[in-house]
Every structure is written in C-alpha cells, then in structure tokens.
Amino acid sequence: MSFIEDARWFTATPAPGATGMPATPGRVTLVGAGPGDPELLTLRAVKALRGARLVLYDHLVGKEVLRYVAEDADLIYVGKESSHHTLPQESIIDLMVRLARSGRNLVRLKGGDGFIFGRGGEEALALAEAGISFDVVPGITAAQGAGACAGIPLTHRDHAATLVFATGHLRGDNEVALDWEALARPHQTVVIYMGMGTLPVICDQLMRHGLPASMPAALVEQASLPGQRCITGTLQDLPQLAQQHRVRPPALIVVGEVVALQPRLMRGMQATVM
Ligand code: SAH
Q1: Which of 63, 149, 193 maximizes ligand 1 atoms within 8 Å of its Cβ, making it the mutation to test the pocket?
Q2: Which of 22, 33, 150, 215 has the fewest CB atoms in 10 Å of its CB?
Q3: Residue 234: is its pLDDT beyond 80?
Q4: Residue 162 and residue 78 share a domain
Q5: Which residues in the chain belong to E strands, given as ranges?
C-alpha cells in the first residue's frame, strides 16, 4: 500500500484536457468508515475498500480500517482536524473530480457516516454537478457508536422521545449557531459533534434555555476505539470534568436523562465480556 502524505502532489497532475481526456471517467464510492473499530464497518464498505485502487481518507478514519485496503493501492491522506486542515474542502473536491475525470475509480473514505457532519453532501453534489457517477455507502455514525459502546441507550422510551444530532462547531463570528430553545426541550437526548472547543458555551446556553443544572450529561471520547472513555456528570460540572480528565477530540457531548442509565448498562456490558 503506498501512502501519499502530500496530497498537493496529486493536485499538481495536469488538468484534464491538457493531456487528453479518457473516454470513461472513473467512479467514486463515498464510504462511511464508522466510528473507528473496524468491526463496525459494513460489509459493503469492506468490499469497496478491498476492491479499491485509490483511497482518499480523513483523519478520523480508524487506522485499523485502512488494513482492508489492498497492498498495492494508493492511499491519500486529505486531513482534516479542525485547526489543521491538510487540504481545504474545495481542493478535496477538486482533487476527486480531477482523479475521476482522469479515469481513476476511487474510494472517498470518511469517519462515521459521510452524510452526518462529514461534508459528504457537498462532495456528492459536486460530483453530480461534474457528471461523475458515484455510490454512497453508509457508516455507523459516532453517536450510534458512542451509545452502543459506552452504554447510553439514546432513545430509552422512559426518558427520550426525540434524538437530536447537532454540531458545536463555531461560525466565523465565534458564535455557536444553534437553536438553543429547541435543544433545551424536555424528554430529548442531544448529541453534539465537534463540541469540545465550545463545551462551556454549550452547557451554559442549555441551562439558560431551561435545562436543569442537574441534567445528566456525558463526554464520550474515542468511541469504539481501544482508548474509549466515557465521563459522566451534569450540565453544571461537565466543563470542569472535561478539564480534569483532559478529554480530547474526537469526543461527543451527550445530554439527556438517558445518560443516567450509563453506569448500570456499563456494569452489565462489562459483565458479559468477562
Ligand atoms: N461523519 C462523522 C462525524 C464527523 S464530525 C460521523 O458520522 O461520526 C467530527 C466529530 O465527530 C468529532 O469532533 C467528534 O465529535 C465526533 N466523532 C467522530 N468519531 C468519534 C469517536 N470515535 N468518538 C467520539 N466522537 C467521535
């Protein structure tokens, strides 16, 4: 397997047309890699990875997942960590379109599910507009991985009738653009992606909009991976717990009464593996 660390090398290949466009453009397969544990890949994802000659992958793709890629395939790392973008999104799209137009089939591999905070929608639209055919293979999103692996039953019917996935990512003006009133509704579980940098703001706003300070809340770090940790507390003390335990991305914030069931479920889950 050849790792191509510097994706700019690929962008420097001549634009289609300059060397004559091949008759058949390649096909793109957008594959969700799941939350990290390779056993959480779908069979279709494994099939796509085994058959791939070229794979473009993000930093959240578990290392073990890449073992399914054939020995002689090319692997291109295209980033991105929130503060350290290896390639801007437009360049990733541009690269995919160029490669496909040059006749190469490729797999675009993303952590979790590509259509859930994965910018897979933008990539699929761009491919559609460029006239390049593609398939979409769903993945287990981090929230599902965290719920199952850390013992949080996201919609236990005694505690939650609604499940919301939200992003805690900052807008350009340093504000978290969220509908706080909707997120602070009762009998609901809220899972926030990309929220570690804004955790104090998130907890504060949820309390200001009506959730009690005692509302159970959790941080699930590296869900499904060997380093998985689940820190539980309340909306009030979660930011302090995050500091104390040095919780680092990738981590999810889970808010709702279902979090209170976590210790009981975890005891049972640990008992079954022993
Ligand atoms: N498309 C991905 C989400 C990408 S956004 C998916 O469907 O899961 C990136 C955010 O996902 C991270 O900031 C973190 O909040 C969350 N995340 C991804 N993998 C994770 C994991 N293994 N454990 C906890 N959170 C994870």
Answers
A1: 193
A2: 22
A3: yes
A4: no
A5: 2-4, 28-32, 54-57, 74-77, 106-110, 134-137, 162-167, 188-193, 216-221, 229-234, 251-255
